[in-house]
Amino acid sequence: MSVAPRAPSISWRARWAELLLRLTVKRRMAPDVDLMALREHYKDVDRRRFRVPADARRTSVNGGGVPCEWLAVPSSKPDRVLLYLHGGGFALHLPQIYARFAARLARALGARVLLADYRLAPEHPFPAGVDDCLTVYAWLLGQGVAPHQIVIGGDSAGANLTLATLLGAKEAGLPRPACAFAISPPVDLTLASPSFVENERSDALFRLATLLLLRRHYVEAERLLDPRVSPLFGELAGLPPLLLQAGTREMLRDDAVRFAERARAVGVEVELELWHGMQHCFQLLEFLPESGRAIETITRFVLHHMDEVPCHSNDVLRHGARAGSLLA
Question: Is 217 annotated as catalytic?
């Protein structure tokens, strides 16, 4: 496990963003928040205020029964794919924001991005979202995409689903992707990490009571130790190389640390970056210089692991057939 050194100073943009988030998002995330009203509010904000770059091509597709969207930019290579799983507390989805972020990633990686619109709580609690994400990965393999040309990534709840998908793919006997990255991953939904208490005040987005509310809508208490809910408790040996990023001021900081430590202990190649002074999922805020540097790290990591494995057409056909049988 490597912890990349971060610059000790924080940009003025990051300080300004933290204040803005604290005055807007955290204020709305009250412990008694009406989740459906919150969803409608952010859906409206997403639709009115966020635009996707004009050169990004968006195409709806049925990913094995799960609604998905392909996003590509002119530099996207057709055989290089990022399966991206969005965040939102397992209950919210902001399609414009995530399409815009996907365009950044597509440009950086030279890849097509497949955005999975997995089912959301509270209408569809666990395991609906987990099942959808594994289905999309199996469908992608069934389309003939070589596993070593696939990377899975996600942020927040989507980072949880990224790790759960890797565990599910291993259990189902599907080939693993080239690598995966997880931004601010919640890996233990018992919320036992010390930073949930230590960083509650410094976290500019969430309160502990709000996370408990989101968890209650997503999963029953007796299932919190299920690895598909809390990937920290899964059999991690054999997972592909992982990059974990978290901010030192967010409540999920220690979840990233604990997962990295446990994965490394069973032989998984892990890179862990703790970004000094940064908040939850700061990577999505493209005006931050820290966001640009974090994307550069993701790009370096992904391209290293995608480019080091040669393509074998027979493997592609065999893996595609295996995925197709899973979906049948």
Answer: no
Which H/E stretch holds residue 79? strand 77-85
C-alpha atoms less than 13 angstroms from C-alpha of 320 in its C-beta half-sphere: 11
Q: Are 158 and 85 in contact (CB under 8 A)?
A: yes
b/e map 223-249, b = 16+ CB within 10 Å:
ebebbbbbbbbbebeebbbbbbbbbeb
CA-wise closest residue to 231 among 162, 176, 180, 178: 162
Please indicate whether residue 250 is annotated as part of the active site: yes
**For residue 187, which of 124, 114, 150, 242 has the smallest C-alpha distance?**
242
- Of residues 78, 72, 205, the one with CA closest to residue 144: 78
| Whole-prediction pTM | 0.91
**Catalytic, out of 69, 148, 193, 250:** 250
156 is catalytic: yes
Given 280, 290, 291, 319, the catalytic residue: 280
Residue 303 has which token pair?
């391209």
Indicate the pairing of strand 77-85 with strand 270-275. unpaired
DSSP code for 252: T
Single-letter code of the amino acid located at 296:
E
Tens of pLDDT, residues 281-327? 999 999 999 999 999 999 999 999 997 544 333 333 233 333 333 33
Give the model confidence (pLDDT) of 161-193 as tens digits: 999 999 999 999 999 999 999 999 999 999 999
Task: Indicate which residue of 18, 148, 156, 305 is catalytic.
Answer: 156
